[in-house]
Design brief:
By secondary structure, this protein is α+β, with helices and mostly antiparallel strands. Helices cover 34% and strands 25% of the residues. The N and C termini lie far apart (52 Å). The structure holds adenosine-5'-triphosphate (ATP) and magnesium ion (2 copies). One magnesium ion binds next to loops. Its EC number is 4.1.1.21. It comes from Meira miltonrushii. This is Phosphoribosylaminoimidazole carboxylase. One of its GO terms (biological process) is 'de novo' IMP biosynthetic process.
Length: 410
């Protein structure tokens, strides 16, 4: 059916689930990532994959030469190189656009953009120089300016204060929760001592974290998946519950509306993951957007009419979008996070995968393992989706998996 080829920057677990969806539609995918055994490459046989970094301009150009459309499974790519391959006419379509990727990869610019468009976000302020490209050479000069700016932000927003790296953040790794103003230099030190652009966010004492996947077509149509509850531990997504339950059913609708409004302001097609904070007064604040399929949307593979991965394929190929509706009464997702520090620690690897073994005896569950060889603590090694007729049934099934992990850890 489809003659066009897609190139993907990144070949991790999101790429792996993307190629599953693409292969069902006979769409050829070329992957760029380091090594030959990256999770997505393992299940997508091709002589056209490229061994290299998605932040390497020459490798991006090499990938672009062999495909019709480029997309990303991670935002930490060289957005300038993407713009260049498009400007040179090497590839015609890049989704989302390099401009959108560049905007999103700098969380401070992203926040400024969204608040400028009237999207509710936590109050925030720049920390130190506005120019994110503060060079290593200037780091010694920049760090004291950042400490001074943190003092100002504490006066403005109070404590605790959330300090965030503007770029290269994931799983909370670029975040620092400042509890005392005296710790400002320690915070700057731990976040990169002046060599990294930072910004401050007012603490959001949310009651729940919410996420909404949104798919955007080439012509700008936006469709939202159901709002879901995401539960994080140590800033890493632990579980997702779909749909979002709240005594006020309007909350889920409002979350979808905010997410759609935000994504409608961006350029380019594809799936976007929108993270939100639900406050005690029912207010929703947008935390951040991912310009790609997202952990909080894994459940859509088993629980929705069209998965986030298939809709990403359809959107970037300018094919009709699929329904985003739930096709089951209720669903949950449990991440399989590494509990081992050493690859060689066989006992810890067994603990990590204990919920997967348990899931084999639980109806309505589907395990997805990512084929990662290194099992570091907190690393996303796989996930399990649970579906059922109602929340009670899904919670019961979910609990068996969580209990299996707790027992294994004892
Ligand atoms: P991701 O892996 O989702 O890309 P990230 O490293 O970009 O994460 P954030 O999403 O900004 O980091 O923050 C990680 C987590 O920290 C959030 O999911 C939330 O639990 C908490 N958090 C972030 N900002 C705030 C805030 N302003 N107030 C309170 N908690 C926050
Ligand atoms: Mg992030
Ligand atoms: Mg996040």
């Amino acid at each position: 059916m489809e003659q066009r080829k897609i190139g993907v920057l990144g070949a991790g677990q999101l790429g792996r689930m993307f190629v599953e969806a693409a292969s069902r539609l006979n769409v050829e995918v070329h992957l760029l990532d380091v090594g030959t055994t990256a999770p997505a490459k393992q299940i997508c046989s091709s002589d056209h994959h490229i061994d290299g970094k998605f932040s390497d301009a020459s490798k991006i150009e090499e990938l672009a030469k062999g495909v019709d459309i480029l997309t990303v499974e991670i935002e930490h790519v060289d957005a300038k190189a993407l713009q260049t391959v498009q400007d040179k006419g090497i590839v015609k379509h890049i989704h989302p656009t390099p401009k959108t990727i560049a905007l999103i990869q700098d969380k401070y610019l992203q926040k400024r953009f969204l608040s400028g468009k009237g999207i509710p976000v936590a109050d925030f302020a720049s920390v130190g120089p506005e120019d994110a490209e503060s060079s290593q050479a200037g780091a010694a000069k920049i760090a004291p300016l950042q400490v001074q700016a943190i003092d100002e932000a504490v006066k403005q927003f109070g404590l605790p204060l959330m300090l965030k790296s503007r770029t290269q953040a994931y799983d909370g790794k670029g975040n620092y929760v400042l509890k005392n103003v005296e710790d400002a230099s320690k915070a700057v030190e731990s976040l990169g001592a002046g060599s990294r652009g930072l910004y401050a966010e007012k603490w959001a004492p949310f009651v729940k974290e919410v996420a909404v996947m949104v798919v955007r077509s080439v012509s700008g149509e936006v469709r939202a998946y159901p709002a879901v509850e995401t539960y994080h531990e140590n800033s890493i997504c632990h579980s997702v519950f779909a749909p979002l339950r709240h005594n006020d059913p309007a909350v889920a609708q409002r979350a979808q509306d905010v997410a759609k409004k935000a994504v409608a302001e961006l350029e380019g097609a594809g799936v976007f993951g929108v993270e939100l904070f639900l406050m005690s007064n029912g207010e929703l604040l947008l935390n951040e957007i991912a310009p790609r399929p997202h952990n909080s949307g894994h459940y859509t593979i088993e629980a929705c009419e069209t998965s986030q991965y298939e809709n990403h394929v359809r959107a970037i190929l300018d094919l009709p979008l699929g329904s985003t509706a739930l096709k089951v009464g209720s669903s949950a997702m449990l991440n399989i996070l590494g509990v081992a520090d050493l690859d060689a620690d066989k006992a810890a690897i067994e603990k990590t995968f204990a919920p997967v073994v348990a899931s084999l005896g639980v109806p309505g569950t589907t395990a997805h393992l990512y084929g990662k060889s290194g099992c570091r603590r907190g690393r996303k090694m796989g996930h399990i989706t649970i579906v059922g007729n109602n929340d009670a049934q899904v919670r019961e099934r979910y609990q068996i998996l969580v209990d299996a992990l707790d027992i294994a850890k004892k």
